[in-house]
Structures are given as structure tokens and as C-alpha cells.
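Bench notes, bay 3.
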Amino acid sequence: MELLIRKAKSDDLEAFCRLLSAPETTRYLEGPFTKERTERFLSEAGLTDPPLIYAAEADGEFIGYVIYHGYDERSVEIGWVLLPEHRKKGYASKLTEMMIEKANSSGKEAVIECSPDNEASRRIARKFGFRYEGTSDGLDVFRLRPENKA
């Protein structure tokens, strides 16, 4: 399996529409999204410089997107949103590993924000040694500090 995190392109609109229009995908987001809302989201979050999100591919196929952007002065927020057919294949763990490495190489800590009901994201945070810090705007906040790393 070859995973790639790349800058989103305007050509990704249909793939993002498929991802963000699915109720099971957007259960913990503000969705499902219409095509117009998805186009605005892609433009404002993925086609900016620097982007807030990046497209994720497995063996050349779009599988979803990752979140990677500044969170506060010392950390970046990381996360992922995957198409339903690409869940439970280890992609979230591998993408998380890749984003932690990127954060570490830039001297930043990593933060995961998720709905308190999103057990899959909470499980990934615990798996990688993130520590629960409390809530912010109704979301659970997990932080990986250098001393948290194994």
C-alpha cells in the first residue's frame, strides 16, 4: 500500500463531493455538504496557501483528506476524513503517523480535536500517545508532546 498526502486540486471536487455528501462520513462534521458547500470548503481549505487540508491517496486512488494546519503557536492540528469504503484498513493510523512525523520535523506538537462521540478518532489519539487536555468549543482536545512519545 502506497499512501500519499498531496495538495488538493480543483479537479478533486467530485471526489470531495462524494466524500462530504455521505451522512456516515459527516456524522462528526457539519454535514452532509451540498456541492456548493463542498466547492467552497475545497476552495477555502484545500486550495489556499498554505492549505488547511490535503488530499489523501492509496495506490493512486482518492481515499479522503487529512487535516494539517497551525493550531496554536506551538502545535499543528492533525486529522483525517476517509471515504466509508476505505475505513478499517489501517489508513487512519498510517496517515496519523505520517502527519506526526511532519509535525515533529517542523518542531511542532500535534493536536487532534474530535467530537466526544467519535470513538475511532479517540482510539487513534490514545494509540499514538496523545494526552487528553479537555474540551474546546465542544470538541475533545488531545495533544502529543515530545515527552508523550514512546
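Next record in the batch:
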Amino acid sequence: MPTIHPTAIVHRDARLGDDVEVGPYCIVEDDVTIGAGSVLRAHSVVRRHTSLGQRNLVESFAVLGGEPQDLKFDPATVSFLRIGDDNTFREGVTISRATGEGLATTVGSRTFWMTGAHAGHNAVVEDECILVNGAVLAGHTILGRRAILSAHIGVHQYCWIGEGAMGQGNSAVTMHVPPYSLFANVNRVVGLNSVGLRRWPGLAENDRRQVKEAFALTYRRGLPLREALARMDEHADWGVAAHAFREFIHRVVKASHPHDRGLCPLRRRSRVGDD
């Protein structure tokens, strides 16, 4: 049976799994599902049409499933926030439900959201991502598996951050960032996330070498992007990681409005005396 503090307000039609803990002054609205073993700390809020899987931790003053920050949103719209298992949402995290009837904002499993992180409506956050303090995803963005957003990064609407990518604090993105890349400043890829690749479960040295080759074809050979893709397509023997990089670039090239934002360019090292 769930444990509900007497000061909490839990809608009679909310569905709470075994061993759920609802702390002081929490609010759980109608049409909410919270999986077994989840914990809501004091003053956290779970809005209607939100579902959480098992063993999620929701810290104080987090608001999950709030209405989209979208001026055209009709509050009568039935849209959703769907969250997987084993996630941590620290103090003040906010995630909006989707804009559009029947649509959903989605969060995978084993993600970690530090204080003040935010994801907007219709965003997709895949498994094992980390959003550091104040990192923000605008609406309709995708954050790929095991990606890391450092403190106060801003990601523009309709942008995609590939799996395993990592951003420098206080940077901003209005274009797409390929998998396993490091990005910084405004719309600048600065190299490969080599440490992340070494730590990626199941990746062998050959997989990392293939990713490096895909990155070099994209950024270091001076090739037009479509020619770089043609060179990548010649490598039928590439493994899962390099294939994911190549498919991401294909997707960027084929993207139509409003996703046709282009690929973040490589930052060139400036010489001494350059502005």
C-alpha cells in the first residue's frame, strides 16, 4: 500500500503502486499513475495525464506534467507526460506535457535531472541522460541516449542532440549535434566525446575507431556533407555506434521544416592574435 502524508492532496482517481511514498504538501492530480517504489518528496507536484514508472524519485518543488508554455495551447487538450523507471528529478525540475491532442512528452529510464532543469512540451529524453543544474530543452527537442547537458545549456526547439553527446556549460544549440560529440559556445562542435566513448557499455576499440572515421569524414576532410555521407555509406561493415552516427547525419540532411536546422559546424582553433 502507498504511504501518503496527511497534508498531501491526492486525487481519488490517481493510481499509486505498492510502496509509493507521497510526502508532505505534495499534489497528485487526476489521471496520474505512479509506479511501485516511487517517492515524492515534500511540496512536489504531479499534474494530470502524467505517468511515472517504478522507483522514481521526485524532489521538492519539482512539477511534472505541467501545461505547455505555449501560447496557443488549449487547456482542454488531453496530452501526456510519460516517464520510465529509476529516474531522479531534483529540486525545482519542470517537465511539460505535450502540445497536441493525444501526444506525449516522453522521458526514458535511469535519467538524472539536477536542480532547475527543464524539458518543454513534446520533448523526448532517452535513457540514461543527465541534465545538470539549469539545463533546458525547448519543445519538440530530442536528447539521445546517455547524452549530458552541463549547467545552463539551452537547446532550441526542434533540435536533436545525438546519443552520447556532451555539452559545455553555458553553451547554446540552435542546430543538430551528432552522436558522441562535444559541443560548446553557440552552435559549435569541438571534437569527439572520447571519454564517453571509452565508457560506453559494449563498445570495443574497433567501434571507437569507426566512430572517429565517421566524425573525420563529417568534419575534418573538407567534404560537402552529402559527399561525406556517400563515403560513410561505403562502410557496410560498420558496427552499431558508427551506424548510429551515419544515420543521424542522414536524418539531418533529409529533415524538412521545422526540423531543417542543419548540423552544428566544427569550431576551428583560432591563432594567436585572431579576434
